[in-house]
Amino acid sequence: MNKLNENEAINYWQSVLGVANSDITKKHLERLFNITIAKMVQSVNEERKLISKREETSKDKFINNEEYDFFEKEFKYLNDSLENLLEKYNFILDKLSMRTSLLKQFEKMTDSEFSHFIIDEARLFYEDEKNGTNVISTSEDPLSYFVKKRFHTKGYRLECETYYPHFFELINENINRFLSYIKEVLDNVSFDFNEIKDVYFKKYNNIILEDISLGDGDRHKKGKSVAALKFSKGKIFYKPRNGDLDVAFFRLLSKLSRFNLNYEFRDLVILNRRDHSYFEEVPYVQTKNNAEFREYYEKLGCLLGILYTLNGTDFHNENIIACGNNPMLIDLESLFHSNIFINENIYDKGFYDLLKQSDPSVIDIGILPKKIVKNFNNEDISLEIGGIGGEEVKASPFKYSKLNIQNSEIIHSRDFGLNQVNQNNPVSKFSDKDYEIINECLKKGFILFYQTVLQNREEYLSTIEKLFGNLEIRVILRPTYIYSKLLSLSKNIYIIGSEANRDVLFSKLAYERWDQLDFVKSEYNQLKQNDIPFFVSNTSSLDISDYENNYLGKLNDSTPLNNALNKIKKMTSDDLTNQVSLIDQVINLKRYKDVSTGIEFAKKEKDLNLQSMLSTAEGIGEMIVNRAVECSEDTITWVSTVLQGKEEVEFGIGPVGNDLYLGNAGISLYLTYLYKKTNNKAFYVAVQKANNYNIEFLKQEKLYEHGNVGYYNGSSGIIISLAVSNLHIPIPNFNDVVTVSLERMRRLFDECQSFDILTGTAGLISSMLCLEKLYPGKYTNQVKELLLLSYNHLFRNAVIDGDIAYWKTSNTKAYTGYAHGNAGIISALSRLAEVEEELFGFKLVDRNFASKILTYIDNNFDKQQGLWETIPGTNRYSKGWCHGPQGQLIAQTNVKLGLPELSKNDEFFKDIIEKIKNVGFGNNSTICHGDLGSLKAIEYYAKKMKDKKLLLDCKEVFGSIYNDVLSVNWKGNIISNTESLGLMLGVAGWGYEILQHIDYDEMFDFFDV
Question: What is the dihedral of CA 96, 97, 100, 101, to 10 degrees?
């Protein structure tokens, strides 16, 4: 092996860490490990030298293909050790059967843990053309072929021992931890055996332990996980922690009768010890009739209320079992989960502290429907993980590795598995009618419990304090998938061959987190021993420790119990209304798929009652203000329907964020004009607080480092919202806010990896042109600099292929449409071309470049569909503003104004307007996906082209939309019967359009960018 120099090592470690440059990499590693990079490189070279020596003496033997069980040495040791271990326990009758079972479990765990390693090694094997040809010609499964022909040979075992000594160290460490944990379980069972018999198997005489099955969940504390103990007369579960929280919770359920709750909850039989516990197996029993079905969900609603008061989280489908009319919570270690987590390098401290102040809502508990959505090959894959089931078998967004033969090549690919129906479903299949019942019953149980607490608050507080004081709890500092991903990556062949590379990989956790170094070092050390990091605290303490009780520090200023007690003290009828609204919306997202509005462009209404319209707009504003979530005395935000996934076809309920599209910026924009129209002080105060939230958000350096600078979905759009708002509701130090934000954007501009109008540099162009128009001359120098940077960024990063140009990164595929693709980019460049000579004194936008952007769009027009393919080759088409003809109309209108030499003819505009009229109405009434967006696009063209007849048609169509939809449905039926609050996808957008049609000239047109 060649000797590495310092630059080679740093460049590789920089790629492992994913940081900006080599200087940052060097500084980070030297600070964390307290040694010089030179010493680290020296250590790597010493390791490589040893490998080279082994290679010299063994390489000739690598070709030995004599059959040999790869893990024979390790598994023989495990087998012999298990045989000796099991011999000591007389309550195990068939020791051979248990040993065989445990060996199979360990083998399965090993296969799963090191699957990446084996697949990557197989891929290297097939780089030899002969090996690849052999398997392709036989069409044999390539992984099976590799395992048979190469993996289980003496030569390959020797080769791995030569190049991957740490691989075998990990295997042996896993074996020793496995043996240690099995011994711990058996020792505890032996000590507790008589009580186990008395508690769980009292009516039986002779009880023997037949098997131990370790769970598939995360392993903590040196490889421990939940273990199923199969006895001759039944099964119980062993947990390597005490059951204090679980015992307290079920005691609380038993005490609820004193509060006159009408539900009798099933108990869970728990045998509790200081450092471990036993739980009965809860049988999965479906409900027998409608009465049981209703009772199940009323009880679940009540449990939702209890968990809400106890700051419960992570109660997803695997943590609930349907047992007849009883929903059984089987893992309560995530009670009292406050907003204490390690700053995930997303937020700066100021905004992070703001986030920590907000109480968790019913959404955060995990019981209500919740989807994980991932984009793969330009398709959104979703998985329902909420505690309320109802999903049939479908694709899961979690990928697994496999080898495929594609086009006569061996490919290491990642594909999606299937999501199976879980035991949280009290019936096999759900109908829309069932969801209606679920919604009704959940709300009934939740309301009953919540009102009971309001009526008996002091007694309930006292009960919680007595039951849950001074109990150990688990603290989740980061989402565990982050740890799982790092552990998986550490088994990569390029990482596992070097101890230093593993160290560097795990050091990602410490990047820019020096104020939390004790926590990070504990995470690092636990990952090094192949564990998912685990932390503990106490309900009555601020202290956080690792699982060995080593004190690490504090991450909050209030104890977990006090957080819950304070939340209970703050419970009000208004909060009840808001939480019930969230329940209603989440369930409705499952009930309602497509909601047709019945609107057609031909359907017109000439008479509009302006007073009625203003009354509706004010009602919308009051609802939005009532739904606000207070983060601090001076800041508010909202929880609402949000889009999930790149393709924007999945909806969920969650925090709205800060942007113009769905978040605070768009909502604040609406409330600003509503205040101006009504002079209602409540709207004024809400705008101030929403703006304060966004100003805190804009202060974050990391916001700009991530390069999210776009108009609708990025930081520049937030600035525009503040700029508009400031004209009507003055913002203290507004000039400083804008100047500093623009300077941050300029300084960290190079981090931007997005190009579209939603999140990227095309959006920044739109925002800067907007800012110059709103405040002419005030920020011109900064505006011009950012416009030049943005244009050059687009030009430099474009993929130019002959007569076409487009943009393609891992996050932004080559879309054609307005929101994510070429149409939005050419739209921004056209607006820039309109003012380039006035601003710069020369033509900035290269017309040949602009022509290539347009050609890419033209090439993806499907004449048969009369629509543009969203992404070339996908056969997917959109009928909405974001990807469809509405956005294309806006873009081509701007081309006609700014780049007239590249403009389409009148026939094109006539055809596209007709297409929007035919396909763009009746789907829903939002701006992004529905009637209002279609209408706004046509209105935009009509205004710019001064087409009075078309403009009048649009006004009359709005009358139909207002009378038939907006005035009727604004109280909760925006998207799929939910209270979507945002501008582009919600009721703030409805209100904004109502105000615009009362007096257009007074309003800022956020489409006119």
Answer: -150
Task: Decide if 86 contacts 99 (C-beta within 8 A).
Answer: yes
The enclosing H or E element of 240 equals: none
Q: What is the pLDDT at residue 385? A: 52
Residues with Cβ < 8 Å from 325, sequence gap 6 or more?
Answer: 287, 292, 293, 295, 296, 299, 426
- Residue 16 contacts by C-beta under 8 Å, 6 or more apart in sequence? 495, 501, 504, 505, 508
Distances in whole angstroms, Cα of residue 364 to Cα of each of 224, 315, 336, 361, 651: 27, 9, 12, 5, 16
| Contact yes or no for 889/919 (Cβ under 8 A) | no
H/E element, 731: none
629-632 and 635-637 beta bridge pairing: antiparallel
- pLDDT tens track for 427-471: 888 777 888 899 999 999 999 999 999 999 999 999 999 999 999
Cβ-proximal residues to 148 (8 Å cutoff; 6+ apart), any chain: none
Tokens of 307: 């968990």
Q: In this structure, what token pair is assigned to residue 459?
A: 């007694």
User: Assign residue 812 a region: left if phi > 0, alpha if psi is -120 to 50, beta otherwise?
Assistant: beta
CA distance 106 to 94: 19
Residue ranges of alpha helices (H) inside 310-427 are: 349-356
Residue 631 annotated in ligand binding: no
What are the beta bridge partners of residue 625? none
**Tokens coding 942:** 């009509």
CA distance between the termini of the chain: 58
pLDDT tens, position by position, 533-576: 888 999 999 999 988 889 988 877 889 999 999 999 999 999 99
Looking at this protein, which amino acid is placed at residue 658?
Answer: N
pTM as predicted? 0.78
pLDDT at 752 over 60: yes
CA distance 358 to 689: 14
Q: Residue 730 — φ and ψ, nearest 5°? A: -55, 140
CA angle 171-174-177, nearest 5°? 155
Rg, the chain, Cα only? 31
Instruction: Name the amino acid, one letter, at 718.
Output: I
Yes or no: say if 655 and 982 are a contact pair by the CB < 8 Å rule: no
- Residue 543 makes CB contacts below 8 A (sequence gap 6+) with 537, 551, 553, 554
- Closest C-alpha among 56, 69, 48, 47 to residue 156: 69
Determine contact, residues 467/336, Cβ cutoff 8 Å.
Answer: no
The distance between the two most distant Cα atoms of the chain, rounded to a whole number of Å, is 97
921 sits in which H/E element: none
Q: What is the predicted pLDDT for the residue at 339?
A: 54
Q: Is 929 annotated to bind ligand?
A: yes
| Beta strand pairing call for 472-475 and 409-419 | unpaired
Task: Give the pair of three-digit tokens for residue 216.
Answer: 């598939």
Which residues, in sequence order, are CB contacts of 748 under 8 Å at separation 6+? 701, 704, 705, 707
Domain ranges across the chain: 64-240
d(CA 703, CA 711): 14
Is 882 marked as binding a ligand? yes
Residue 127 burial class via C-beta count within 10 angstroms: exposed 0-12, middle 13-18, buried 19 and up: exposed
Q: What is the mean pLDDT of residues 797-819?
A: 86
Nearest to 325 by CA among 255, 262, 383: 262
How far is it, in rounded angstroms, from Cα 123 to Cα 387? 40
Return d(Cα 565, Cα 539) in angstroms, integer: 11
CA 91/CA 819 separation, integer angstroms: 67
